[in-house]
Amino acid sequence: MSSAPLFLNRDNTQRGSLGRTVLSRRAVLFGAAGIGAASVAGLSALNLPTAAANDLRIYSTEEWGANAPNGDIAINRLNYRPSKIVVHHMDSPNVTDYSQEAAFKIARDCQSWHVNNGWADSGQQFSVSRGGYVLEGRHGSLAAAQDGSYFIEGIQAAGCNRETIGIENEGRYEGELPTDAQWAALVQLIAYLCRQYGLDSSAIIGHRDCSSTACPGSAFYGALGQLRADVDAALAGGGGAPTPPPEPEQPEDPGMSWPVTKRGDSGNAVLAVQRLLQHHGWQLEADTSFGPATEQAIFEFQSANGLGVDGAVGQETWPALIVVVRQGDSGSAVIGLQELLNKHGARLEVDGVFGSATDQAVREFQELQHFDADAIAGPITWKGLVTV
Ligand SMILES: [Zn+2]
């Protein structure tokens, strides 16, 4: 974990079951004050939901253990807002395991089914489990929603993919409705997406409105009017809270650009690229030489993050790649930081642990470069280390 968790908790209550201590940098969490339980009667007597109905917490692909997308297939970033939100059912069994573990498993299973279809990644942008867990689907979809100006093109509603984002709901809803927990989470997710993309509840459609399919099942499809009403109520009551504040970062220095780093290059910038890729989960050697393996990893990283996919690390990819590290952090990004500081004259033991010696070395480098000497390695410091 490279930095403080990013979340906005509107009601300040602590619900330990949500595991806030493991929130990732990309997680979204907010309470929805004033929103009651689902108004459509599900099978409430049988439900033992484990996710709190009044919170929206979106688990990123990283958190539920997604595989990297198939880098051979392009994933398109569409630089405009979606106009509709498509509701699906997975047509999967109506299981009664409402745990987070089950939610993460269905997300992984769904990704596997879709990749086995020959797709690059999960087809849908988001999923909701029967236990009410909300999960990012296609890589980059959560960052896109947080931004609110673009989305990642999915494969979820033939004929509508370039105008819509899709939500897969675990279960089969031909003759019954989602669980209360699932319904409440879906309402909060849609309210959030409406806020982020400037939509209202009239944007909600069923998959069968786009394509020739029974999805999302007749019972669920028949309840879309109720879903729109519940989303309206959530929006009116403050649900779908605005995007959390961005992670604190040092301001960008417009006078200095990132060095474009690409295949055939070697040196400090390449070392940084490789260590940062390791931090983000790619397994490659940090040999300071930008060869085919590094290029392939960059293709995958760019695809996964909705960036232009060209295999070169430039003005767009560097900011997505760097990790803000400070005292107390550890891992591959810190190893890279220590190696780069040593190349700039420090004599650190490269142990991947950001302790007081690394803190002091960062501060000295920042002072030397006339940067703000706060001992936090953010964009300006990384840029200095790979440029100077
Ligand atoms: Zn569908």
Automatic annotation (TrEMBL):
Region (Disordered): 234-257
Pfam families, alphabetized: Amidase_2, PG_binding_1
Domain (Peptidoglycan recognition protein family): residue spans on this chain: 56-211
Signal peptide: none
GO biological process: peptidoglycan catabolic process
Domain N-acetylmuramoyl-L-alanine amidase: 70-217
Superkingdom of source: Bacteria
Keywords for this protein: Hydrolase
GO MF annotation list: N-acetylmuramoyl-L-alanine amidase activity; zinc ion binding
InterPro entries the UniProt entry points to: Amidase/PGRP_sf (IPR036505), Amidase_domain (IPR002502), Peptidoglycan-bd-like (IPR002477), PGBD-like_sf (IPR036365), PGBDSf (IPR036366), PGRP (IPR015510), PGRP_domain_met/bac (IPR006619), TAT_signal (IPR006311)
Family of the protein in this entry: Belongs to the N-acetylmuramoyl-L-alanine amidase 2 family.
Name the UniProt record assigns to this protein: Peptidoglycan hydrolase-like protein with peptidoglycan-binding domain
